[in-house]
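sanity check this chain:
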Amino acid sequence: MSIDPKTAFAALPPTLAQDLLDAYAEIVTNYAEHRWEPAELNGGKLCEAVYSIVEGHLSGTYPARASKPRNMPAACLALEKSYTKAPRSPRIQIPRMIIALYEIRNNRGVGHAGGDVNPNQMDATAVLYMSKWLMAELVRLMHGLTTDQASEVVEALVEREVSLVWKWGGKRRVLRTGLTLKQQVLLLLAGVTEATEAELVSWLEHKRPNDLRKAVLRPMHKDKLVDFDESTKAIRLLPPGVEAAEKLIHSLSKS
């Protein structure tokens, strides 16, 4: 990662950056907790923040706070006509993604009664990943990063808040007893972007690192739950591992 996630939006007015980050954090947190309707509703707030930032980026002046245009689709389409010499991403691609995200928020039974469908996981998933794309594209534009680098920054912007894990500085402890080592690893990795084998050994208070590697980390790597780089000893959740961790958190929160 080439920039610190904490400074990803330092070029923006602090209140505008906070509007963006708060909306994104709400989407990520509500999705992780399987609260589909709030996850979708916050997509609207994110659209307002992203639109305000893109319009400011194109005009050269950022507003202090996010605001909602009177007609969001028309305002987004107007950017295409007003800034014809600007790159396609802020002029066309980001605004059109905003329109798609705003449509789900307004006309799929979330923002108003009478939509075609009730709030659901499929729509909330679309909201989550469109939001991640928008965030990553903003980071890419503002810092000249590759898409992979920008995505990595966005993943680190919001740590998954796992109430089952106690945190203090660099220390972490799983509070729920009776869990397997694999379940504990999922919970510990769900709250960080990346961890080392040494950190996991410390957090688990495991006496035999070689046994943890053989019995847990290598099998989880083989099952595509984590990526375990044995040369650097770095470990991070893969998409199937993120899904497994979120299901585990959801099941434990109800028990």
